[in-house]
Design a protein that fits this description.
single chain, 201 residues, two-stranded antiparallel ribbon, two-stranded parallel sheet
Length: 201
Amino acid sequence: MKGQLSIRLFETTVAVLMLTIFSPLLLLIGIVIKLESPGPVLFRQKRVGFVEKPFYMYKFRTMRKGSENQKGHPQRVGDIASFVFNPPRRDLRVTPIGQVLRGTSLDEWPNLLNVIKGEMRLVGPRPDEPELVEQYLPIYHLRHWVKPGMTGLAQINGRSNLTYHQMMTYDLHYVKHHSWRLDLTILGRTPLAVVKKEGAR
């Protein structure tokens, strides 16, 4: 219990510091989003978190107003295990600044608000939409034994270039073996994965 409180305090502190230190950049991003197209700077999307409890994840808006609720993937994906996130190279719903934010993963920085609220961690499986969770194979539900994270094993090993089963294999490995050492390794490798833009979407 004491260890969990220490982790919670550490990650909350890190999230607050990151939001504070990078606030000028985040403010600039918000201004550009607002000037480029009408609509809110942030948008909320329902995701499934720890013990399959739903929550709303925050991200910078990257789509034009009215497009946020349109799925980037079909509601039914057929064979969930072989499914690959494969968005079009130029999604007309995505704004120019949105393309930049997605390519650099800066659109995910508002996830830090979810970390502060205790809904997410810095490291863990990325949370899925309820529509995908409904199609999970039974073993996939084990990923909800830990809190979702901003980055994870799948994110540093191919991201959306992976099949869904490959992604789940990484997530389930993390659930079984997660530790401070593994978390630090993932955090250390995340910047390189972002710079290389492998599987960015």
